[in-house]
Amino acid sequence: MSTTTIVSAPGKVLAAGGYLVLDQQYPGVVISTSSRFYTVIQASSGSANQIVVRSPQFYQAEWRYSVTYDAAGIQVNPQEDSIGGKNKFVHLALQHTLNLVSEIHSVAQVQERLSDGLDIAAVGDNDFYSQRAQLESLGLPRTTKSLSQITPFCHNGVKLTDVHKTGMGSSAALITSLVSALLLHFAAITEADFANLEGDGRRLAHNTAQFVHCLAQGKVGSGFDVSSAVFGSQIYRRFGPAVLDPLMKGEFATGTLKSVLNSSAWDYSFRPIQLPPLTRLVLADVEAGSDTPSLVGKVLKWRGHEDSCETAKELWTQIDESNQSLARQLDALSQSYVQNKDAYEQTVRQLTSLPAHEWESISKAFYDLHQTTQRIRNLMRRMGDLAGVEIEPQQQTHLLDQSIEQAGVVGGGVPGAGGFDAIWLLICSPPGLPDDQQALRRVESVWSTFDESNVTPLLAQESVAKGARVVQLDEIPGLREAIQRQ
Question: Would you call 461 helix, strand, or coil by DSSP?
Answer without folding.
Answer: coil
